[in-house]
Amino acid sequence: MRVLILNWRDIKNPFSGGAEILTHELSKRLILKGHSVTIFSSYFQGAKKEEIIDGVKIIRDGNPDARTLFNSVQLKAYLRYKKEFQGKIDLVVDEVHGIPFCTPFYVKEKKIALICEVAGDLWDIAVSFPFNILGKFVERIYPFFYSKIKLLTISETSKEELAQIGFDQSKIYVIPMGSNSKIVEDFPEKEKNETLVFLSRLSKSKGIEDAIKCLSLIKNDFPNVVLWVIGRGEEIFKKELIKLIKKLDIENNVIFFDYVTEEKKEDLLTRAHILIIPSVKEGWGLTVHEAGARATPAIVYDVPGLREVVKNNVNGIICKRNSAEELASNAKKLLKDKALYEKLQKGAINERKKRSWDETVNQFLDFVK
């Protein structure tokens, strides 16, 4: 089977996230099963126009921001399909992140849509007026674009939200998310000082500001507490975060790691005590299992996606209220209660063991058939 995947970013993009991990893990396993996969995604500074990673051919062109119009990845994908792929592929996977590729209007081959989440109010955080209103409008008319094809999503919450905006639930299939993270055999030694870790791209929607405020509240009980921030973001936004850190007088308690290798990420997750995810919304929450594999439980906001991947008081804690104060209260409780902490460590490892990318690709192929 010859597969073409259209996505706004690829695995090497500095702003790639869980959706890109899913896409790449799925693609490379399709390659191992004898299929061919090409990913068409946006170009980013310093990237190669074309390259092969794990057997997956990646073509980059256009900008992920649809406001660039004629240079948008959506238009570039249409032009490349007409020029190079039409009649030469068996399946198109149309990944929708905000602005759709609208493949039902021009792709003649078999096609499916992958929609990891419904952005909803995230538009108000991600872009300014009037583009936030336009984004919400476009999202509301997704069913018009994709009413005649089947959909994949990654959580029951996302499935419910897609149904709420007009999709037929019988055409939506929830594909299980896997994990690559290596599972520890025994509880590893943690940092001497209490250590929180935030692992995500730096943006308002991911809640990094609440993570920083949470740290300042914990500092009263644990003066040497540290927050490790792993992830990239716009330089302007990072400067705002540094101002907040200075204002809260916690400059010596926050360490930014920016981009790290998989080995370094694994090491940091192993040594940290708690993963915190104060995200406004998630399609799933891969980092929960990445940390869980290293016996590091998570404290998360009660939001779509995260309330599925975290089982309250099993592999982590779901906040009753989504606030920095609630995050801090739960973190202090967990750091002080050794028995509870070890219980969640064990639960985190057990929940990670249930996740496999091989199962993901098998169910994907069943769905396609």
Element string (H = helix, E = strand): EHEEEHEEHHHEHEEHEHEHEHEHEHHH
> What's the structural domain tally?
2
- Describe the largest sheet: 8 strands, mixed
Tell me the helix content: 25-40%
Report the CATH superfamily of the largest domain. Glycogen Phosphorylase B
Question: Can you count the helices?
Answer: 14
Number of E-type strands: 14
Instruction: Please name the CATH topology of the largest domain.
Output: Rossmann fold
CATH class of the largest domain: Alpha Beta
Strand order of the largest sheet: 3-4-2-1-5-6-7-8
Return residue spans where pLDDT drops below 50 for at least 5 consecutive residues: none
What is the architecture of the largest domain at the second tier of CATH? 3-Layer(aba) Sandwich
- Percent of residues in beta strands: 15-25%
What is the CA-atom radius of gyration, in angstroms? 21 Å
Distance between the ends: 11 Å
Oligomer: single chain
Walkthrough of the structure:
With 369 residues, the protein is α/β, with parallel strands linked by helices. 39% of the residues lie in helices and 17% in strands. The chain has helices at 18-32, 73-85, 122-126, 131-140, 142-146, 156-164, 208-218, 235-247, 262-271, 286-292, 306-309, 324-336, 338-353, 357-368; strands at residues 2-6, 36-41, 50-53, 56-60, 91-95, 110-114, 151-153, 172-174, 195-199, 226-230, 254-258, 274-277, 298-300, 316-318. Helix 7 packs across helix 12 (324-336). The protein is globular and about 65 Å long. The model has no long low-confidence stretch (mean pLDDT 93).
